[in-house]
Amino acid sequence: MRTRIISALIFIAITLAMICLSVETRILFFVACCIISCSEMKNALNRLDLSIQIWAVYLTCICSAALIYFDLNAYVFTAYTLILLLLFAVHVLKRSFGIKDLLATYGVCAYPLAPLMLVTYISKAVTQSGKEAWPAIFLSAILPSVICDTFALFGGKLFGKNKLAPHISPNKTVEGLVCGIVMGTLSGFGVHYILKAFSCDLITLWAVVLSAFISSLTGAIGDLAASSIKREAGIKDYSNLIPGHGGMMDRIDSELFSIPFVYFLYALFI
Fold first, then answer.
1. What's CA 112's distance to the chain center, in Å?
2. Which of 44, 46, 52, 151 is least surrounded, with the fewest CB atoms within 10 Å of its CB?
3. Using CA atoms, how far apart are residues 208 and 190, in angstroms rounded to an integer?
4. 79: three-class secondary structure by DSSP
5. In this structure, what are the phi and psi dihedrals at residue 158, rounded to the nearest 5 degrees?
6. Of 83, 98, 184, 84, residue with least CA distance to 142
């Protein structure tokens, strides 16, 4: 438990430092998260006898991040398409790179690469809006999903009777999920007053509470999505990068879903 707490505090400190210093450090941080996460996903899929062309994933990540940084967002989709076509050419020319390997590589480009690049875009776009909305968006997305995950664990242990998705995660229960979503949603009140204290209350109280509910729900779905791949690959964690917590994917699986959805909600209300 001590190791888990210490490593969590170190990870949080690094994350806050990187996303708060500047746009450049923020983008570099997300690129690093993306490269590590995609590498972990590759290793997981390798256990299913799937060969991932990881160079193409890294190339897509770097090209997309560079285009976002230089405000060439309209070309990100073009870069994605060209690299996907290049992958198909490799499949045609390289017999050992089969169709299942091709589709698996496409899958890594879709998850976790695409959501992480969307988060990178969000971190740049909201900064340029002049409203400094990114602290509000990130806090509204991350804190409720973390609280939801924590109380889902305790709620499941105390009240859990009905399995939520035993074929994916046998320990998760419906009662635990309900407890997590309720507490995650209620945390929206705390998020609102924290943002208000720092003059970042860009939307109304009830909109923040709604975003907390969305964050909790989508975060739970994101956690199940990552768990389904681990279950199929027969692994407990994606890696041992963060002692006591597992890999990068184990830490950001919920946020890959919650941050984009909360961003869309903020875009409607701001």
1. 7
2. 46
3. 10
4. helix
5. -85, -40
6. 184
Angle between helices 76-93 and 99-108 (to 10 degrees): 160
Are the C-beta atoms of residues 176 and 160 closer than 8 Å to each other? yes
- Torsion, CA 106, CA 109, CA 115, CA 120, rounded to 10: -160
What pTM does this model have? 0.92
The SS3 call for residue 1 is coil
Q: Name the strand (E) or helix (H) holding 241.
A: none
Pull the structure tokens for residue 70.
Answer: 């230089």
Q: Which helix (H) or strand (E) holds 238?
A: none
Lookup: tokens for 17: 């430092």
Question: CA geometry: angle at 160 spanning 154 and 161, to 5°?
Answer: 170
